[in-house]
Amino acid sequence: MTAKVDVFLQALGRAVDDHGVLLLGICNVTPDSFSDGGDHLSLRDACAHVDALVGEGADMIDVGGESTRPGAAPVSPSEQLARVLEVVRYAAHRAPVSIDTTSAEVAGACLEAGACAVNDVSCGRDAELFRVAAQHEAAYFLMHARGTQEEMVAFSTYPDDAYGDVVIDVLGEWSEAAARAREAGVTSKGIVMDPGLGFAKNARHSAELLRRVPELVAASPSPVMIGASRKSFLQAWDAAADPNERLGASLASAIFAAQSGAKMLRVHDVRATRQAVTAYRALSRGAPIPIDTERSLEDADTGEGG
Fold first, then answer.
1. How many structural domains are present in the chain?
2. What are the tens digits of pLDDT across the range 149-165?
3. Is 201 a member of any domain?
4. Is residue 124 within 8 Å of residue 181, measured between CB atoms?
5. How far apart are CA 245 and CA 132, in angstroms?
6. Residue 218 within any structural domain of the chain
7. Which is nearest to 268 in space by CA: 293, 251, 283, 284?
8. Which of 52, 58, 202, 243 is surrounded by the most beta carbons within 10 Å?
9. Across-strand partners of 119?
């Protein structure tokens, strides 16, 4: 049987070879996530969303049952499992799956149900989560953060002086957590570095981290994952945009991160992101454009240009 971490690594390798970056499609089974809370709360709706993400070209699915927005109340492991376990079981037959949780109990059950990775937004606050991932030989997406979601203040009020140099500080704190993960038995080849845009950071911190993705990539021993999709710091370029009106900035961030060396993007809008990164990659490399002549003639016949 293939080890869980190798399932992830195979998916990563295929995605990078095909279109330059792995697209991790988001399936929030929550009532209160910042952009899609309540959209996929029932098992039927969540499974339909999994199918939609796979159909749009997601390379992997990230399933979560607890909102990670600032100020969100914690959700018990039993409630998280009631929301996500069958979704994970369903999704694992369609694509590699990560479970977005800070609970060792939830992670263990979902890894048993078919997930191959843990997505930990707490920066390793609970060492038991490391041990569960190690026992299952799972990949581990380790995101930089400080404190719990309940304690976290909104992006606009997080103090500017909370970091000296945000890139250096984030890398240092993340590296300490990664060392603890390895000491607990998490395999180095399965650790992914996520700088945690929007987590214990204000808009300026997050934008600076995004701008300096090349430095993160150069300094990290692990693949870098960027999760900018629909986040509040994108209002730096359109102050009035609500979460579902941030597609343009989300796509620009995705293209920039991918071209800067990030190997994974955590996204809501899979089809649009895949189009953007694939087209940009082809155009920037001068690759032949894969035009379907018959389809192009059909488009011309329907008056597409008018």
1. 1
2. 555 555 457 899 999 99
3. yes
4. yes
5. 38
6. yes
7. 251
8. 58
9. 100, 141
